[in-house]
Amino acid sequence: MAVSRRSVLKGSSAAAAASVVGAAGEAAAAQAPAAAPAGQPSSGPLLQSRPHRLGAPGVLGVHLQFGTDPATEMTVSWITPQSVRRPQVRLGSPDGGHGRVAEAETRTYRDGLSKEEVYVHHARITGLRPATTYLYTAGHDGATPETGSFTTAPRGRSAFTFTSFGDQATPNLRRVIHLPDGVPSPVNRFPLYSSSQVGSPASADIVSAVERVAPLFNLINGDLCYASVAGAWGTSRPATWADWFINNSRSTRLRPWMPCAGNHENEKGNGPIGAAGYQTYFSLPGSSAASDEETRGMWYAFTVGAVRFISLANDEVALQDGGDTYIHGYSGGAQRRWLERELKAARADRGVDWIVVCMHQPMISSTRSAGSDLGIREAWGPLFDQYGVDLVVCGHEHHYERSHPLRGTLPNDARTPIPVSTRTDVIDTGKGTVHMVIGAGGNIATTQDDMFDTPQARVIMGLSDKVTSSGHKEPVYITEDAPWAAVRDHKYTHGFAAFDVDPGDRHEGRTRIRVTYYTFGGPHGDLTPVDTFTLERSRSDAHRA
Which of 111, 378, 383, 385 is deepest in the core (most CB within 10 A)? Predict the structure, then answer.
């Protein structure tokens, strides 16, 4: 029985569940006893049975992640507040052949503040076909299965679209606001609620906006749900994570959202580097990070088409003290050694044209707020130059801006990057790396009004002995001119970028990525283009024997 992808996307959960269970349901029906006489309960099986016990948690926060090979591997994950029996995924396709089962591995952690235990179930599916759409149900005993679909990555040079943004936060209402005596409440005698952290309506609307584009996958550039802020404000960190996944599952059950860790994924009391939550919620492609349980999942890479994507954990090299704990240098250089191996291999691979890096804190930022970070410039900048990284997408600053293509630095203390071209519509990334700050994903503390009137930047050069009101060491800044600044959005508070990859052909020898930065509004994610430009470079297989 063939079921259309459209029926799943419309939310026809029962129909999709029936189709994906497919052969298994038919086999059970063939063995069923005859129907009971009228008025007596039937002992035969039901396609979708009632919970076998009271209180079985639902299947919530379904999210996808690519495996190490996105063309043949996908992981389906979901969260529960307690242990469950037989978590599994049933896999099918719009053309039939339903019934394959993938058992899920369950990971847990206990939050260091609330002592709540969280269970996350990861069903890793292998042996998939490239560029193929699959339907699935995710479930466990006693719960109604949740349905979804996904498309595997293409193998080899192909056209595809991905999106990117950071600093989303969580659009929940779990924090009770207590007004000062004498201040009237807008809701009279009833409780006044707000976000448990720094969420806004845009934190919800961006999910609909991404679905308007319907990319193959989304890169989320750190500072995901701000559970660390929720903990500091006396609300539940696990509840904040759950709210974030449940909000985003409108998209994440259909396409992977591939993350990097930001400073607010560092949660006090949750493991040696504060990342136990992040590491439990996601099952990410393998890398050298997996060799140590402390660093598992913190950096990784994957290839889609002819693009090598690399996700970095910038808290290790950033000078800024921005997390719950200061963890500068925690890998002892392991991440940098892995990054150099990855970049060297990617540039030697004739099947890879583009290198795209996803990381949180930026090398370039023209705001008066957090600013650029010398630690990142010194750690990653020489490698980006040496191996010709094409594009870097960041967050951390809650606005949008992009750089000219950059290569090398000025001989000054700030290591100011040097632009190799000032054209802003078509950019040859074979000559220099383009950096994009896309941190306007939903956080209420937007920074588009904090940018210098003329292109300048503050650069974090180190830390002082002074402590801020939030308990962090105060940064030491210098101000630099910013000849690297290309486009800066002073107007819009929130947005994301979409990237359309065009592999070109070997005869022409050029490949392109067409980029559109959108702002959005409303629950349906209405889109307005803000900035459009094209990246181009030579294909790695061009003009070679």
Answer: 111
